[in-house]
Amino acid sequence: MHYHVLTLFPDMITQTMSHSITGRAQQKELLHLQVTDIRDFSQNKYHKVDDYPYGGGAGMVMEPEPVFLAYEYVCQQVEQEGRKKPKVLFMTPQGKTLTQNMVETYAKEEDLVFLCGHYEGIDERVLESIVDENVSIGDYVLTGGELPALVMMDAISRFVPGVLHNDVSAITDTFTGSLLEYPQYTRPVQWREKEVPPVLLSGHHQKIDQWRRQHSLLRTFTQRPDLFEKVEFTKADCKWMRTQPVFPVDLVNTIEQKLKKPKE
Ligand code: 6GU
């Protein structure tokens, strides 16, 4: 995977990506990170890259030309290395909200360009010229696109072959069924009056899997009822949920009815 970031704060990107798993993946050349400072393409002797908004209003707007030149520079590089024109993602709270499915789709690209804005935004004309997709990471406003670009690269990198240790990626596979992760424990077996659930010490793998499934269901129901609706339940799930007062009887009845019907 080749990441390209167009930004006014290159150190934010380079430094953050140098840590932990993304740092190791770069050393192993599984990930390539090219950070381009938009300011390097300023046409101005003071390296200014922003100006007042036409029509008035608060703040400054990023000028189109330095952004376009930075983009052209990246495209040239990619072409020279013999790859096709990269997809350009603009980080903006007005974009489509990032989901795990989008992350997995982006992971299939060979190159990705992340355009990070600052101030009140970027001149619309350059966005029209170079942006393929607008992406947001959630419904709140940040000061710039750098943190969203980092969030996206982190999430995408997990799907680049070899980046995660193999047994970690297996865990991911079981997770991507809209169920939340079950609770985890490590030593000591007793910590400040609190014990590890005995079943996890039993060595009985079938019972452990069952316990984990049940606690994933419980967590998803209590913490993310919106995700609970999308879970693919089994008969055994229903049988167990009936023994747990937190699950309303009517709800379990509805789930069981759907299970009996063939899929539409
Ligand atoms: Cl992608 N950019 C900015 N500036 N704020 C955000 C965002 C992106 N996603 C959520 N808030």
Report what the structure shows.
With 264 residues, the chain is an alpha/beta fold. It has 2 domains: 2-167, SPOUT methyltransferase, trefoil knot domain (Alpha/beta knot, 3-Layer(aba) Sandwich), CATH 3.40.1280; 177-260, tRNA(m1g37)methyltransferase, domain 2 (Trp Operon Repressor, Chain A, Orthogonal Bundle). It is built from 11 helices and 9 strands. The chain has helices at 10-17, 20-27, 64-80, 100-106, 124-130, 146-157, 166-175, 205-223, 225-228, 235-241, 249-260, and strands at residues 2-7, 32-37, 50-51, 61-62, 87-97, 111-116, 133-136, 190-191, 194-195. The chain has a 5-stranded parallel sheet with strand order 2-1-6-5-7, sandwiched between helices. A two-stranded antiparallel sheet has the order 3-4. The longest helix has 19 residues, at 205-223. The radius of gyration is 24 Å and the shape is elongated. The chain starts with a strand and ends with a helix. The model has no long low-confidence stretch (mean pLDDT 95). The site of 6-chloroguanine has 14 residues, from strand 5 and strand 7.
Give me the CATH architecture of the largest domain, please: 3-Layer(aba) Sandwich
What would the principal axes of the Cα set say about the shape?
A: elongated
Taking all Cα atoms into account, the compactness measure Rg is: 24 Å
How many structural domains? 2
Cα distance spanning the termini: 38 Å
From N to C, what is the helix and strand string? EHHEEEHEHEHEHHEEHHHH
Structural class: alpha/beta
Main beta sheet: strand number and arrangement? 5 strands, parallel
- CATH homologous superfamily of the largest domain? SPOUT methyltransferase, trefoil knot domain
Q: How many helices does DSSP assign?
A: 11
Bound molecules: 6-chloroguanine
Kindly estimate the percentage of residues that lie in beta strands according to DSSP: 15-25%
Total DSSP E strands: 9
- What is the fold named in CATH at topology level of the largest domain? Alpha/beta knot
Write out the strand line-up for the largest beta sheet, numbering strands in chain order: 2-1-6-5-7
Q: Bin the helical content.
A: 40-55%
Which CATH class of the largest domain applies here? Alpha Beta
Which residue ranges are poorly predicted, with pLDDT under 50 across at least 5 consecutive positions? none
Average pLDDT works out at 95
